[in-house]
Amino acid sequence: GENVEQHPSTLSVQEGDSAVIKCTYSDSASNYFPWYKQELGKGPQLIIDIRSNVGEKKDQRIAVTLNKTAKHFSLHITETQPEDSAVYFCAASNTNDMRFGAGTRLTVKP
Amino acid sequence: NAGVTQTPKFQVLKTGQSMTLQCAQDMNHNSMYWYRQDPGMGLRLIYYSASEGTTDKGEVPNGYNVSRLNKREFSLRLESAAPSQTSVYFCASIPRTGGNYEQYFGPGTRLTVT
Asked: Taking CB atoms and an 8 Å limit, are A6 and B90 in contact across chains?
């Protein structure tokens, strides 16, 4: 089955700096790659996703890139704000089986 | 819309006790999922129901059973709870229509087995 690895496990940045989280996956059949943000005591919430036929997608301060050949994808957050502090999960999916990375705890220091 | 709702929010069980976690969605989604979340391990799929009337095992199904009662409701049952099942359990649903695979998560159930 699919195996997703996520790095780093913790990330601390100054407000206004950029943050990058990277994931690799193992199953070349995976075709859907979402990113979730989880705040304390809540369920994960989708922030951006990308499909395998697209190399990059941007939504305001958030962008995701996908390299299918290398089987890795990344989340980029620019101009970070304290409210960006949360745990971020990447995932890879082919039909019903979605596998998640272990998560990255992002702390944005004011 | 309430989205995805889960009950209870918290539960403490003794080893060997049984219980059912309830999940309901009011978005007319076709597919529903149960995950467990443990520290440092992300979310792991326990069972899923691709459509009403079907259920399939995920990555970690042992010790659990599920029922897709109707299109809205998907329950998870622990027949004989074990300390290893202490975790936070999340239910999720997906429209799966029009190519929409976004998962909508409930708020979670925090389960402790002593």
From this structure: no
